[in-house]
Amino acid sequence: MSPSLSRAGEPTTDEAIAEGLDEAMVRRVVHHFYDLVRADPLIGPVFHARIAEGHWPEHREKITAFWSSALLGTRSYSGKPMPKHQAIEELEDAHFRRWLAIFRHTVTELCPERTAALFIARSERVAEAFRMNIAMHRGDILTFRPPLTREEFP
């Protein structure tokens, strides 16, 4: 989906930019989010097992580029995240729910209302896409797989 297009009821990128969305805000969100993720007892270990201490700055910049591309259309991200996530055998719905809860908390805390709503809508689509692709990769049957439920921030 183009950054300028939105689904019905979802804030547009233009609305978020009018509220102050820029690359600096995306960077603040990503950095604060990963501070919380690294300390989380459920998903922190998943990240720590794959990202060495000295590689966190690089990872944060890569994810900042991802969100800048997704929301602002910067085209600064060129990675292929799906294969890396498919290789994480322990990833389950609980991990995705926690990731989303921490993400919602972060953007609600740091962003204006419409910008937070845009981040949340996109993050939920990203999580569902990853979740479904991982399930297909594992050979799971997806016919009656309900969407993720929301978890509150710890």
Shape field: globular
How many helical stretches? Answer: 7
Mean pLDDT across all amino acids: 90
What is the chain-wise order of helices and strands? HHHHHHH
Organism: Alloyangia mangrovi
Keywords: Heme, Iron, Metal-binding, Transport
Protein name: Group III truncated hemoglobin
Pfam family, one: Bac_globin
Tell me what you see in this structure:
By secondary structure, this protein is mostly helical. It has a single domain, classed as Globins (Globin-like), CATH 1.10.490.10. It has helices at 13-19, 23-39, 44-48, 56-72, 81-86, 93-110, 113-138. The protein is globular, with a radius of gyration of 15 Å. It starts with 12 loop residues before the first helix and ends in a 16-residue tail after the last helix. The model has no long low-confidence stretch (mean pLDDT 90).
Brief digest:
The protein has about 150 residues and is mostly helical. The protein has helices at about 15-20, 25-40, 45-50, 55-70, 80-85, 95-110, 115-140.
Primary descriptors:
metal ion binding; heme binding; Group III truncated hemoglobin; mainly alpha; Globin/Proto; 154 residues; transport
